[in-house]
Amino acid sequence: MEQPPAPDNSRNNSTALRLACFSGGLPLLVGSTAFAWWWISRSDIPILLGIGTVIGGPLLVLVATVCLVIALRKRPRVSRTKILATAVLVFSNFPIAWGYWEAVSAEVSTSRYRFVNESGIPINHLSLRHRERQIGSCERLEDGESIEFSFSALGNGSEGPISFSAEQDHEMIGGETGVMAFVFTKSHVDIFLMRNGRYRVRVQKFSAGKPAGSVQETDSGSP
Q1: Which of 140, 142, 162, 144 is nearest to 153 (CA)?
Q2: How far apart are CA 11 and CA 3, in angstroms?
Q3: Rounded CA separation 103/134 (Å)
Q4: 183 in Cβ contact with 154 (< 8 Å)
Q5: Per-residue CA distances from 136 to 33, 187, 217 (Å)
Q6: What dihedral do alpha carbons 140, 143, 145, 149 form, nearest 10°?
Q7: Could you tell me the maximum CA-CA distance found in the chain, to the nearest angstrom?
């Protein structure tokens, strides 16, 4: 009596590896394309594409991981070199995606806030806030000194107003700077602290990470 043909495990292995390569390579390809597109155009559209890849990519990597496990368990096993190469392709998504995210975040959304003390007296207990969250502080800023803080609305998941508070000659000063932290717009903000609780805010905005930006100055504080 003829024995039924044995299942073609090598074919199953090959299919599993192909699916692992596809599932692991797709987010890498789309993410790299989005990054290159953004690097050339500095447009917001590839940023949105990249965010979609970051959200959907882990699911595809999970599918690829399951396929790798299947390829390892089937016999006869395929070449370990092929499995290792596929695994490197799949799991390289994480460090590469992190590098792209950091580069884009720093370029399009990390704003610099610089305080300059021009009041003639020391400033104490200086605090910079985004909504209700403190993003920088300084216990004492001498006359003529300056200090810088950085903040990314993209990295912190929300947009909102920037405010500050400080103590000048035993009185509290500060309030809203008139500056909003936006996800896709970075700014260089200079806050000049002057006498009698007054302060001047100078804002240079860089929409979509472009090298040139608009400049606006406003005076605020006590009359």
Answers
A1: 162
A2: 20
A3: 24
A4: yes
A5: 36, 16, 22
A6: 50
A7: 105
Is the pTM higher than 0.70? The answer reads no
Q: Quick: pLDDT tens for 105-164.
A: 777 778 899 999 999 999 999 999 998 889 999 999 999 999 999 988 877 767 889 999
Residue 197 CA to residue 69 CA, distance in Å, equals: 66
Are residues 190 and 179 in contact, defined by beta-carbon separation less than 8 angstroms? no
> Could you count the other beta carbons within 10 Å of the beta carbon of residue 67?
23
Task: Give the residue carrying structure tokens 């070199």.
Answer: 81
**Cis? peptide before 46, omega within 30° of 0:** no
Chain-centre distance for alpha carbon 35? 13
Amino acid (one-letter) located at 126: L
Angstrom distance (rounded) from CA 153 to CA 186: 9
Q: Which residue has the tokens 């920088």?
A: 136
Structure confidence by residue, pLDDT tens digits, 91-105: 999 999 999 988 887
Give the domain ranges of the chain. Answer: 9-107, 111-220
Question: Domain 111-220, what fold?
Answer: Immunoglobulin-like (2.60.40)
Q: Give mean pLDDT, residues 27-43.
A: 89
Token duo for residue 196: 């009698």
Q: What are the structure tokens assigned to 141, written together? A: 């800023």
